[in-house]
Design goal:
Layout (H helix, E strand, L loop, with lengths): L2 H12 L25 H11 L1 H5 L18 H18 L4 H10 L8 H11 L6 H12 L10 H8 L10 H24 L10 H7 L3 H16 L9 H19 L8 H17 L6 H8 L4 H10 L3 H12 L7
Amino acid sequence: MILREFFEKREHEILSAYAAKSDESRGREREEEKCDIRTDYQRDRDRILHCKSFRRLKHKTQVFLAPSGDHYRTRLTHTLEVSQIARSIARALLLNEDLTEAIALGHDLGHTPFGHAGERALAKYSSRDFRHNEQSVRVVERLEKNGAGLNLTWEVRDGILNHKTAGKPATLEGDVVRLADKIAYVNHDIDDGIRAGILTEDMLPKGPADILGHSTRDRINTLIHAIVTASFGKEHIIVPKEIEQALFEMRRFMFDDLYTNPLAKSEEIKAEKMIGYLFDAYMNDETLLPDEYIAYIASGEDRETVVCDYIAGMTDNYAVECAKELFVPMAWKG
């Protein structure tokens, strides 16, 4: 027996009736030969982990721009924490852990430099409503592997596209990632806010904190257990109303007291303006773009889309260096 077929058979034997099965995938956009030892979802997970966009996440902002401490989250550590939370839930619910992990690892591949400030800037300066979830799909479908894309399964791409709060993933695994993303960023951003001296545990809204817990560990544990207990054996992922409301109120508090805090976000105006300068420069002169992006335009891609692709793929530091090169006078070298 081919080892992949053994794993596919085992999924039908041990996973929930509501779990996505690898051999029942809607497939890839381009047909390709199956791997003999990995299922399609295992293969997708590996492709995402090894792609360049994934590696660049380590130098992209989560909440704090260019923090001086070593322990603040980046977009990469956030992604890994989402993956861990999502896998814990999926495993407990007997869902497909490989599909869950693939979606989680890929969900933020299209995120801009400087976090949501960069996303807002591209939406502001371009004529389209730039969204990082849609850009993540574009990364895996078009931009990776020099324009060939990763050719991922439909279920992984659907989960990536629908990971935002208002999303409606087609699989339970995708819904688990959608919730894990919120659990991760709310609780870990609280942790970073406390580390930065902007928040304290005592500042958190008392009602939600009493329900969810008074530490990052306790809150994550409460949320995971509540979802697993309510959803086990069900055809939907269920968040108990009291728990959902507490998480929503905690998230609202974070938007009011951290995400828009003048101290935490003091540099975001500069970042947004800098992305605007880069956008205008590349729109006015496409020869400033790297050769591979010029080739996209030559092949018929819309220039504005390609400029957004290039800027969205930048790390924080690379965006700053590009801005320096374009706009900061260099010393004369005789």
